[in-house]
Backbone:
């Protein structure tokens, strides 16, 4: 796994956590759809990459999974935030905002100089 | 925290694979269903909906693979897979696995056992705090004077001077051996111990566990009646009672009060860690203040050892410089002493390992060679196997296995093999160390401290890994670097395997034979030495002789007359016992070490400066001593009862002395003087055969004997009794004890032994060397023949078809047999030739361990070469016979 994938996985994890926070327990397909829709279909990824990310979050204890039944009566694995996951989401969101703020300032400074 | 937790989850992910795989499959199936359903609702056909969902997912199998990588630890999984595969393949080829792991076990076992010894004796720190600061300043003889010893004792005047003036030492102490008769506490017992000056214990850095060390005041003549006990003595003789402190015990007829008990295990100095020029006891039991007198009697023999602890930061070199300076100062006090006050400051660690360092390193070298043989043997076996499996490897490469993956697989296999062999080797090492400890306890210093420890385990593992990689790499490289298409097309059976592979194996084999040759020659030389020693004439007849120590308490036997009188009475009693043939006494018994030596003056020759003066060992003996020891008289007469103080002083010299100092004339009747003019000249009345003192292999030094009846110099308080019996010596012991008790009930009969036992003990070192190297030789031979067998057997297998063709064309089976045998003989011959050349060089190192055998002994070389040739031919014989029996029809169909 290269560095880029890691960065992407990091952001993907944040999106997954946020999605589960707003929507409550959700299955993999639902999460994927939601992320796609929220991003205004700008992010088009293979849904497959979502599953290792979910596994990683589960291994880290931020989400938990349970087999359940979907809206249209299909058996599916549902993921939900744990308490640790909620804290992690707050932390990561803050980190991310800080990061984008710094980057934004940085880019703005570069523009004004040129 | 989170990292750890995830890691645990991943380790857990290694297990329950099937269930997890099933669950993932279900999850992905439901994902696809959900997606396809939505797509269908958006108006796609069912087929299209499903196809789009699959595309969006990125493929079911690819997702699973991604998921699996995240789930467990892929590295561990491949390793596990490789291991299982390796175990399966090794299990399928039992004979190969057995041969290879046995080879490794022998190699690793031997190297670990020897490393354990080297580790215990050479590498392990000494049991004293900051032992690197402990040194012995030994006295050296002046250049050009060869006394046979490198470390000499100091006298009282010089020692007092050093103890007072030296400043590079934190503590500097003198000590000498002393034995004490303990009376009034059960049976009288002879205790071995030392007289030590006050700083002795602080120089070693070990202090009594109970009580205290000696004070400076107690180290003064007249105040020295204090004693410190060893833990073992306190426990065994004094019942381990704490109230022993302050109690008085009677030693040599004097009351001594017990001031301390040393910690368990402290028995410094042990004789085996000390130069042989000092007669230290094997094990120390008590310590008493040395109390050097300030004004010593000038002719007091020099018998002191000095030990010092350097000040922190002071170097051995600094101490040496100071000792050199002090030596030159003290030299001025001795008119004839020029050159006799130089010293050599020797660190304790060097002293302890001393003579054993070189032999141990030699043995380590031998082990290295053995390990090389074992490794190349395994490499050969693995190589042969990998050539046989070439198609398999190529097939796997064609199916997509990367080179790295194949290499790893092959390496895993050989490492697994090394692990099996290593485990067996470790067990073997443990067993051999136990064995060596049993048979070798007398032969190496610090043996009781030796045991397999963690470092040894580490060494074994390192050897294991190195062996595994070394023997694994070559075949693995061969397997990985193949050209797929050619190999798949070519028929292995027909082509007879790769040429380079075969050549490599043959090279290994030649090397093995050469190395085995070197080891076996070395073993052969040592074995011959051993048998030469058995035949060597010790100068006495050890059978049916009992020896024991008589030690007179100085307090009771205060004058020379009293001492001579009691020896007269003891000898008369012992000599008249019915079972006794002859009884004698001497300062040192045969093979009981070297006693004193002295400068001698040959009276009818011009005086020579002291430096070039002749010298001789000087031994006090009794008239019947030579008869009791069985030492033949060559000329003249033995001592007689009539040799008394008032008659002419007489001496008996040994053959070596007569030859050395009177090479072309008759020594009988010549007059001899000692170093000091105070002693009257003595007349040489007899010449006896050379008696050996330390080992059967020694060159006998000049020796002179004087009789105890003629008031000889110096003290005669401790003597060795030599009793030749008519029957079994042990049977006479009871009557001897009774006879001794009748003379003086307080005299212990100490250190009873038979002369034969003492001689046997002196043979333990050569026997040990012979057994050890002999063992290596046998192992090396076995390994080389396994290798030989492997190569020839493989070659027969490879050439089955060729042999079939030859036979079909009318070749005689005998011819085929000869052809295979010749192949083996050629390899063995080449190996032996190289081995002989190498051995000629290597055996030079053995020179000092040989006795009456040249390091180039032709008999040994020829014998070993013949042995190797026959072993090699035997190893080839079995596969060659198989070649002879090849049925041409079967061979030709064999494709």
Residues:
């Amino acid at each position: 796994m290269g560095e880029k994938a890691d960065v992407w996985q990091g952001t993907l994890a944040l999106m997954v956590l946020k999605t589960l926070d707003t929507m409550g327990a959700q299955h993999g397909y639902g999460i994927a759809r939601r992320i796609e829709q929220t991003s205004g279909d700008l992010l088009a990824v293979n849904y497959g990459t979502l599953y290792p990310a979910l596994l990683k979050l589960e291994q880290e204890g931020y989400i938990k999974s349970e087999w359940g039944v979907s809206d249209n009566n299909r058996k599916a694995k549902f993921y939900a935030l744990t308490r640790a996951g909620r804290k992690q989401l707050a932390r990561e969101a803050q980190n991310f905002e800080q990061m984008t703020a710094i980057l934004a300032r940085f880019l703005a400074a570069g523009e004004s100089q040129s | 925290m989170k990292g750890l937790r995830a890691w645990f989850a991943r380790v857990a992910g290694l297990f329950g694979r099937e269930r997890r795989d099933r669950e993932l499959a279900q999850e992905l199936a439901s994902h696809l269903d959900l997606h396809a359903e939505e797509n269908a609702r958006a108006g796609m056909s069912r087929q299209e909906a499903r196809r789009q969902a699959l595309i969006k997912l990125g493929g079911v199998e690819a997702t699973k693979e991604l998921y699996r990588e995240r789930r467990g630890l892929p590295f561990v999984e491949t390793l596990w897979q490789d291991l299982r595969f390796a175990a399966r393949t090794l299990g399928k080829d039992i004979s190969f696995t057995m041969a290879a792991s046995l080879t490794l076990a022998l190699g690793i076992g031997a190297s670990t056992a020897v490393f354990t010894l080297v580790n215990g004796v050479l590498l392990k720190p000494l049991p004293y705090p900051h032992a690197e600061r402990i040194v012995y300043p030994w006295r050296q003889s002046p250049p050009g004077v060869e006394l046979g010893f490198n470390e000499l004792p100091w006298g009282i005047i010089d020692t007092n001077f050093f103890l007072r003036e030296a400043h590079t030492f934190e503590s500097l102490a003198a000590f000498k051996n002393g034995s004490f008769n303990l009376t009034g506490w059960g049976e009288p017992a002879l205790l071995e111990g030392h007289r030590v000056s006050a700083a002795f214990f602080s120089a070693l850095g070990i202090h009594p566990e109970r009580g205290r060390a000696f004070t400076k005041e107690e180290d003064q003549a007249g105040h020295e009646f204090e004693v410190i006990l060893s833990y073992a003595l306190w426990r065994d003789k004094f019942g381990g009672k704490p109230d022993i402190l302050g109690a008085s015990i009677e030693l040599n007829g004097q009351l001594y009060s017990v001031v301390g008990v040393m910690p368990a295990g402290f028995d410094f100095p042990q004789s085996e860690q000390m130069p042989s020029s000092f007669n230290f006891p094997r094990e120390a039991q008590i310590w008493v203040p040395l109390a050097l007198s300030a004004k010593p009697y000038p002719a007091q023999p020099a018998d002191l050892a000095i030990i010092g602890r350097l000040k922190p930061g002071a170097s051995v070199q600094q101490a040496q410089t100071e000792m050199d300076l002090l030596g030159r100062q003290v030299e001025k006090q001795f008119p004839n002493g020029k050159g006799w006050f130089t010293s050599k400051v020797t660190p304790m660690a060097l002293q302890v390992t001393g003579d054993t360092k070189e032999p141990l390193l030699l043995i380590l070298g031998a082990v290295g060679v053995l390990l090389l043989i074992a490794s190349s043997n395994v490499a050969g076996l693995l190589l042969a196997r990998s050539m046989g499996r070439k198609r398999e490897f190529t097939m796997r490469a064609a199916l997509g296995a990367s080179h790295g993956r194949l290499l790893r697989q092959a390496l895993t296999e050989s490492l697994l093999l090394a692990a099996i062999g290593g485990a067996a080797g470790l067990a073997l090492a443990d067993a051999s160390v136990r064995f060596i400890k049993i048979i070798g306890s007398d032969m190496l210093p610090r043996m009781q401290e030796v045991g397999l420890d963690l470092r040894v385990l580490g060494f074994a593992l390192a050897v294991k890994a190195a062996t595994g990689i070394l023997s694994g790499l070559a075949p693995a490289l061969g397997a990985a670097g193949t050209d797929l298409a050619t190999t798949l097309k070519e028929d292995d059976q027909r082509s007879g395997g790769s040429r380079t592979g075969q050549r490599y194996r043959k090279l290994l084999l030649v090397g093995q034979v050469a190395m085995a040759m070197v080891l076996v020659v070395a073993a052969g030389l040592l074995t011959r030495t051993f048998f030469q020693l058995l035949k060597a004439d010790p100068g006495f007849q050890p059978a049916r002789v009992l020896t024991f120590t008589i030690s007179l308490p100085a307090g009771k036997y205060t004058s020379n007359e009293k001492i001579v009188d009691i020896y007269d009475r003891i000898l008369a009693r012992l000599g008249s016992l019915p079972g006794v043939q002859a009884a004698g006494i001497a300062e040192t018994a045969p093979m009981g070490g070297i006693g004193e030596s002295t400068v001698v003056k040959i009276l009818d020759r011009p005086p020579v400066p002291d430096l070039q003066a002749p010298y001789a060992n000087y031994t006090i003996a009794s008239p019947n001593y030579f008869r009791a020891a069985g030492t033949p008289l060559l000329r003249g007469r033995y001592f007689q009862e009539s040799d008394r103080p008032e008659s002419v002083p007489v001496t008996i010299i040994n053959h070596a002395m007569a030859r050395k100092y009177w090479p072309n004339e008759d020594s009988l009747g010549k007059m001899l003087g000692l170093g000091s003019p105070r002693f009257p000249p003595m007349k040489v009345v007899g010449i006896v055969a050379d008696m050996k003192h330390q080992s059967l292999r020694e060159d006998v030094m000049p020796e002179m004997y004087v009789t105890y009846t003629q008031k000889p110099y110096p003290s005669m308080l401790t003597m060795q009794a030599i009793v030749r019996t008519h029957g079994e010596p042990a049977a006479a012991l009871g009557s001897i004890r009774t006879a001794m008790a009748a003379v003086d009930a307080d005299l212990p009969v100490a250190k009873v032994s038979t002369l034969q036992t003492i001689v046997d003990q002196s043979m333990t070192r050569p026997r040990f060397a012979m057994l050890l190297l002999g063992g290596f030789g046998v192992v090396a031979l076995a390994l080389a023949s396994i290798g030989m067998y492997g190569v020839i057997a493989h070659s027969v297998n490879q050439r089955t078809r060729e042999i079939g063709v030859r036979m079909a064309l009318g070749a005689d089976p005998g011819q085929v047999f000869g052809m295979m045998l010749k192949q083996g003989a050629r390899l063995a011959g080449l190996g032996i030739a190289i081995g002989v050349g190498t051995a000629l060089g290597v055996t030079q190192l053995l020179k000092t361990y040989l006795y009456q055998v040249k390091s180039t002994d032709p008999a040994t070389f020829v014998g070993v070469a013949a042995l190797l040739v026959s072993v090699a031919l035997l190893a080839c014989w079995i596969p060659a016979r198989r070649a002879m029996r090849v049925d041409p029809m079967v061979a030709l169909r064999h494709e």
In short: The radius of gyration of chain B is 38 Å.
